């Protein structure tokens, strides 16, 4: 298993999430009848009983795919026989990100989401991996670094 990284400024106490820079997610349908998240491996929506294949999506919710069993979560949410095309369309990677103006930390899919801070609307946003080696956005004196942590077994 690869090392789990910790991310921090080498001068001040500014830190970001530990891990591998983010996580995989799968988009689950939200049932238009009851608002519940739909797992397409089930025959019916657990909230209202509508057959899964008849559910009209009233939007989508990003569901975290825990490592190392990402594929199990994808199959549960999209169904056992989901096509590669469906999986490609409804999976992504959320990167841990920070606004360089207000220091708000949030998750962002850099391939799908607009690079904009949800707090202050600034477009000066970086993922933690992009920030490694740069000046710390908090103190402007230190360098933001990626260290290694001992993986838990």
Q: Count the strands?
A: 9
**Order of H and E elements:** EEEEEHHEEEHE
Q: What is the radius of gyration?
A: 19 Å
List segments where confidence is low: pLDDT < 50 over at least 5 consecutive residues.
Answer: none
Quote the beta fraction. Answer: 25-35%
Number of helices: 3
Question: Which sheet architecture does the biggest sheet show?
Answer: 6 strands, antiparallel
Structural class: mainly beta
Helix content: 10-25%
Number of separate structural domains: 1
How would you describe the oligomerization state of the chains in this entry? single chain
Care to describe what's here?
- The protein has one domain (4-149).
- It has helices spanning 70-78, 84-90, 128-131; strands spanning 4-9, 15-19, 22-31, 37-38, 57-64, 91-99, 105-108, 125-127, 144-149.
- Strands 3, 4, 5, 6, 7 and 8 form a 6-stranded antiparallel β-sheet that branches. A 3-stranded antiparallel β-sheet has the order 2-1-9.
- It is elongated and about 60 Å long.
- The longest helix is centred in the middle third of the chain and has 9 residues, at 70-78.
- It has 3 helices and 9 strands.
- It starts with a strand and ends with a strand.
Secondary-structure blueprint:
Elements: E1 4-9, E2 15-19, E3 22-31, E4 37-38, E5 57-64, H1 70-78, H2 84-90, E6 91-99, E7 105-108, E8 125-127, H3 128-131, E9 144-149
Antiparallel strand pairs: 1-2, 1-9, 3-4, 3-5, 3-6, 6-7, 6-8
């Amino acid at each position: 298993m690869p090392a789990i990284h910790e991310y921090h400024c080498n001068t001040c106490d500014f830190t970001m999430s530990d891990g591998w820079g983010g996580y995989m997610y799968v988009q689950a349908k939200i049932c238009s009848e009851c608002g519940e998240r739909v797992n397409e491996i089930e025959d019916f929506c657990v909230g209202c009983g509508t057959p899964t294949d008849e559910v009209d999506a009233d939007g989508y919710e990003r569901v975290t795919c825990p490592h190392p069993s990402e594929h199990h979560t994808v199959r549960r949410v999209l169904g056992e026989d989901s096509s590669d095309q469906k999986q490609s369309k409804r999976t992504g990677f959320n990167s841990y990100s920070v606004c360089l103006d207000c220091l708000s930390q949030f998750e962002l899919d850099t391939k799908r989401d607009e690079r904009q801070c949800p707090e202050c609307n600034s477009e000066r946003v970086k993922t933690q991996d992009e920030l490694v080696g740069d000046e710390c956005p908090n103190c402007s004196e230190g360098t933001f670094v990626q260290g290694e942590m001992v993986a838990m077994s």
